[in-house]
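Quarterly update from the structural biology core.
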Amino acid sequence: MQSQFTELAKHVERWNVFAGRFDEFLQKMDGEVNAIRELVSAIGASKKKLNSELANLNPVIRDIAAPQAADEILILFRKKKKLYYSDIAEELSLDLRTVIKACELLVKCGLIEEVPNEQKRPKRSRR
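Predicted structure, tokenized:
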């Protein structure tokens, strides 16, 4: 009977060691889970910041008819005498095709004139 108690005591001791190591493991896992939560939070903050910056870089393109665009383009030409299609599209947040149609309409009506292609646009510096 004594040998059975001795054997049982050894098993209890092994389980006690195992339980201690398992407790250490769970504590380490809690630390890892907290670290992951912090990373997820940081990623979320970075994502919000990036989305905000992207929204500022890519304004929403307005979808308007060519006659309305022509009115807005005429106002822009009163402020600046020389404009390129891309400048107009960027300034008014319009699709380039809409700008071209509207400018063709304004040229046809004699309200603006097209500059010959010989005068090349200076290249923009890349940021």
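The chain has a mean pLDDT of 86.
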